[in-house]
Design a protein that fits this description.
about 80 residues
């Protein structure tokens, strides 16, 4: 729907405010789209990158830690 051409100052002011509001809403939407695009690109890179195994790890209990400390103390 095309707005009616304003003939009064109040009408012109109203049209100006409407244009500003629409422009602000449009810029918010564009910002959201840019952010979503950026995050999608990062996710693609993360998924396509191979993980490098640096070594093997072991989950140790407290008892395992105590045993390792004793063995290290015996060596020293």
């Amino acid at each position: 729907k095309t707005p009616i051409t304003p003939v009064t100052m109040e009408g012109l002011t109203s049209l100006h405010k409407l244009i500003q509001r629409d422009a602000h809403a449009l810029s918010n939407e564009l910002g959201k789209l840019r952010l979503r695009s950026h995050l999608d690109k990062e996710a693609k890179v993360r998924r396509s990158t191979r993980s490098v195994v640096l070594g093997k790890a072991k989950v140790m209990s407290y008892e395992d830690l105590e045993e390792a400390r004793q063995k290290r103390a015996e060596k020293e």
